[in-house]
Amino acid sequence: MPLANGRRSLSIPGPSVFPDAVLQAMHRPAINIYDGELVEMAYSLFPDLQKVARTTDTPLIYICNGHGAWEASIVNTLDEGDKVLVLESGRFAVGWGEMAEAFGVQVEYLNAPDRAGVDPQMVEDRLRADINHEIKAVLVVQIDTASGVWNDIAAIRKAIDAAGHPALYMVDCMASLGCVPYEHSEWGVDVTTSGCQKGLMTPPGLGFLHVSDKAKAVRNQLKRGSFYWDWNRRMDPEMFYENFCGTAPVQHIYGLRKALDMIMDEGLEAVWDRHATIGAGVRAAVAQWGQDGPLEMNIRDDAECSNSVSAILTGSIDPESLRSVAEAQLGVTLGNGLGQFAASTFRIGHMGHVNAPMILGTLGVVEIALANIGAPFTSGGVEAAAKAMAGGVA
Ligand SMILES: *Cc1c(COP(=O)(O)O)cnc(C)c1O
């Protein structure tokens, strides 16, 4: 007897669950896009985007998904033949690097240790060896959505400084902005890339950059040109139409305004804490399930596990059978494994608009699905999660 009828639940790591209030804010006809309410509302987004990334550096909004934000970051900082160092810890930094390669950039990949985050010491050693400063930029993701790792962005900054290296520091916060602590300015990040459809709870369609003065200076020395992605024209506050390089994304502006209001009302740090408690709950459930069986977090050290997405190693259990029972019979869509993790993991997204019943419901469904497919696991994961999360309740 299927138990899927009722409100369907999406537990994938992006797009995330969109609050009804955001969807309702978007459900409106277009209005004047040249002046008036829309223009004022759009400009009100920029200071709040600075607040979520903790910076006064220039924020930009592109009409695109995360890949578009990546492309914007590349075409504004790198010329053909330039060299970059990509710090790989899963799948997504490689994707960013492959995009740079398509623009003729020379990409060197430095892999994180197995099932762990980027090792800052390795970064320092590699940059020290680059005595002629050929590496123009260091690219890393804060949270890798495939491996579930949470990289230490502040420690990598220290490693770059310890090596005395002038490379631009570029950080992908697609799966982490508005989920875990991030300090664009304090950590000396030059370019932050992100998007609206994960922690920022808005349907896919907006990509964000935050850029430092150092990055802007690099842009002004480039030989490469771009019209759509060029950030210079988009920074002119007198030219609203130029800020979006054409028609403004009217409904997305209303949706993002609502989402940022929700984050500011809750308090950014309270949002981070909520993610931390929910992440701890998921990890407690996985530890319980795996007591006497193959299930475990893909990332070995809990301190390096993301609070916005969990990648769970399944060993002898087929992750696709688990996902298909969860989706078809129990109404929850779980995340699939990506890339090299496809056959060995499934993922639970817990970013953005996620509360206690949503995550406990998802974990309960995983437990039913595990039993249904006859997987070896120890029950009691939901109870373990509830215990772990109780500490997060004021
Ligand atoms: C989702 C994601 C991307 C890509 O975003 P798209 O909107 O799918 O283009 C890039 N990096 C990370 C870490 C992500 O999680």
In short:
Helix content is 41%, strand content 15%. The protein has 394 residues and is an alpha/beta fold.
Write up what this structure looks like:
Helices cover 41% and strands 15% of the residues. It has 394 residues and is α/β, with parallel strands linked by helices. The chain has two domains: 134 residues, Aspartate Aminotransferase, domain 1; 234 residues, Type I PLP-dependent aspartate aminotransferase-like (Major domain) (Aspartate Aminotransferase, domain 2). It has a seven-stranded mixed sheet with strand order 2-8-7-6-5-3-4, sandwiched between helices. Strands 1-11-12-10-9 form a five-stranded mixed sheet, with helices on both faces. The chain is globular. The mean pLDDT is 96. Bound molecules: pyridoxal-5'-phosphate.
- Tell me the count of domains: 2
Rounded to the nearest angstrom, the distance between the terminal CA atoms is 39 Å
Biggest β-sheet strands, sense, barrel: 7 strands, mixed
CATH secondary-structure class of the largest domain: Alpha Beta
Which structural class do you get from the secondary structure elements? alpha/beta
Low-pLDDT runs: none
Bound molecules: pyridoxal-5'-phosphate
Order of helices and strands: EHHEHEHEHEHEEEHHHHHEEHEEHH
Q: What is the CATH third-level topology name of the largest domain? A: Aspartate Aminotransferase, domain 2
What proportion of the residues form beta strands (DSSP E)? 15-25%
Number of continuous helical runs: 14
Round the Cα radius of gyration to an integer and report it: 21 Å
Mean pLDDT, rounded to whole units?
96
For the record, the CATH architecture of the largest domain stands as 3-Layer(aba) Sandwich
The CATH fourth-level homologous superfamily of the largest domain: Type I PLP-dependent aspartate aminotransferase-like (Major domain)
